């Protein structure tokens, strides 16, 4: 078993990183070479801006290369919960932004010729318990009637042709998609470079200063200056940008990938070949990979770390969960086990905008794979003076009380959700 992201291991390495010292003056400096940062860099460079991207590790190292491979168009919340907390107009606008984000990715892939196995598969939200069905139905009725007619309610009988495990019903979101995340992020980096962006890997920002409308960003390889800066680091945001760090809770999310399944095994597990999530608070999500592996993930442990020891513990928990849902896979070889950090906000809504001289988009709360490309391009458009299409503009973002770095409270949160899952 490899303790390595399947997406990293099965994608070509980005070969276009700039060599030599980090130096120069730019219109925009982007910190972070994931989906958000690279999408914004591509958008800016296409418009003629002089852009530099500073990445602490390598292209796609963080959440963009460590996720489950889903492009799901729903919110982190139920639509009813979003409407209650945000109001109907903003809830619909944010939901439609997630719809549009998948359209954006599909169009970008076609325009740039990125080979990443993009497919409109549809997403199933599966009721894990009989008592979950009522809430699922109520949410579907409101969502389908007010916001997204491309949804359907499936019965337990309907699901027999979709998933090789018993569930009590599901909501199908037809516009949801999937792709190979590693190939996409490398293709996005290639596109940004092709349009003129300069991308430095192994160039972590150690110091940021701002004076007279000019930003100075110091790395171990040199210093750049820029008129604008975009923070696109999500859960990997450092204490150099403490205002953002106090508002982001880094939570570990973990995944395993089986050996390639035979066609018969794949049909027995996922005959519908869609992306799936279940309704538990500490839930799981899964899909088949392009080479027929089952990629199965979840918040196996409420941890703020992801290293081999942590990933190995989480992988054992995930195997147990997978075998409970799919007993037909009991004892199957696991080829990959990996983890990464998710950039959660306290209310689980993303944020994008401008604060104290810095542009930003982050806080995707487990839905960044689909939204980050779209928001990155929106932030770029705002810098370029184009129409402001940001659905999150004006949404308050208070700091998390008592949170200054490592989220000490995560084990308590985990125990709370475990209790809810036991009794709900």
Q: Secondary-structure map with pairings?
A:
Blueprint (H helix, E strand, L loop, with lengths): L5 H4 L15 E7 L3 H12 L4 E4 L15 E2 L7 H8 L1 H25 L10 E4 L6 H14 L4 E4 L15 E4 L3 E2 L2 H14 L3 E3 L4 E7 L2 E6 L2 E10 L10 H4 L3 E10 L4 H7 L5 E4 L5 E5 L5 E5 L9 H18 L8 E11 L6 E5 L2 E5 L5 H16 L26 H14 L1
Parallel strand pairs: 1-2, 1-11, 2-8, 4-13, 11-18
Antiparallel strand pairs: 3-7, 4-6, 5-6, 9-10, 10-11, 12-15, 12-16, 13-14, 14-15, 17-18
Helix pairs in contact: 2-6, 2-10, 3-4, 4-10
**Structural class of the secondary structure composition?**
alpha/beta
Shape: globular
Radius of gyration computed on alpha carbons: 21 Å
**Which blocks of ≥5 consecutive residues have pLDDT under 50?**
416-420
Mind summarizing the main beta sheet?
Answer: 8 strands, mixed
- Mean pLDDT rating: 92
Hey, roughly how much beta strand do the residues contain?
A: 15-25%
Question: How many alpha or pi helices?
Answer: 11
How many DSSP E strands?
Answer: 18
**Helix-strand pattern:** HEHEEHHEHEEEHEEEEHEHEEEHEEEHH
What percentage of residues falls in helices of 4 or more residues?
25-40%
Q: Termini, distance in Å?
A: 35 Å
């Amino acid at each position: 078993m490899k303790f390595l992201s399947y997406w990293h291991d099965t994608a070509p390495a980005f070969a276009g990183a700039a060599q030599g010292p980090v130096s120069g003056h730019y219109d925009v400096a982007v910190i972070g070479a994931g989906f958000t940062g690279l999408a914004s860099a591509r958008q800016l460079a296409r418009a003629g801006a002089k852009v530099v991207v500073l990445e602490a590790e390598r292209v796609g190292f963080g959440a963009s290369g460590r996720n489950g491979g889903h492009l799901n168009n729903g919110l982190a919340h139920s639509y009813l919960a979003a409407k209650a907390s945000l109001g109907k107009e903003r809830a619909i606008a944010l939901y439609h932004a997630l719809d549009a984000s998948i359209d954006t990715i599909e169009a970008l892939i076609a325009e740039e010729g990125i080979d990443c196995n993009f497919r409109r598969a549809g997403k199933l939200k599966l009721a894990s318990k009989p008592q979950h069905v009522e809430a699922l139905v109520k949410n579907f009725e409101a969502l389908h009637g007010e916001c997204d007619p491309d949804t359907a309610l499936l019965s337990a009988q309907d699901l027999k042709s979709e998933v090789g495990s018993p569930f009590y019903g599901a909501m199908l979101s037809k516009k949801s998609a999937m792709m190979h995340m590693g190939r996409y992020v490398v293709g996005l980096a290639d596109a940004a470079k092709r349009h003129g962006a300069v991308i430095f890997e192994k160039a972590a920002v150690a110091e940021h200063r701002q004076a007279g409308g000019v930003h100075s960003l110091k790395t171990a390889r040199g210093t750049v200056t820029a008129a604008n800066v975009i923070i696109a680091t999500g859960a990997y945001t450092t204490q150099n940008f403490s205002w953002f760090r106090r508002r982001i809770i880094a939570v570990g999310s973990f995944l395993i990938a089986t050996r390639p399944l035979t066609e018969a095994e794949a049909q027995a597990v996922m005959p519908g070949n869609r992306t799936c999530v279940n309704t538990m608070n500490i839930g799981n999500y899964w899909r088949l990979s392009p080479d027929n592996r089952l990629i199965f993930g979840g918040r196996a442990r409420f941890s703020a770390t992801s290293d081999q020891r942590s990933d190995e513990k989480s992988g054992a928990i995930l195997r147990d969960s997978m075998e409970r849902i799919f007993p037909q896979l009991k004892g199957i070889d696991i080829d990959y086990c990996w983890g990464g950090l998710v950039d959660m906000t306290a209310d689980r809504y993303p944020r994008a905008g401008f604060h104290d001289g810095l542009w930003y988009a982050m806080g995707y709360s487990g839905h960044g794979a689909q939204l980050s490309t779209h928001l990155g391009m929106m932030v770029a458009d705002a810098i370029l003076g184009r129409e402001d299409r940001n659905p999150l503009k004006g949404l308050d973002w208070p700091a998390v009380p008592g949170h200054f770095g490592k989220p000490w409270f995560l084990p308590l949160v985990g125990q709370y959700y475990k209790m809810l899952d036991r009794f709900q």
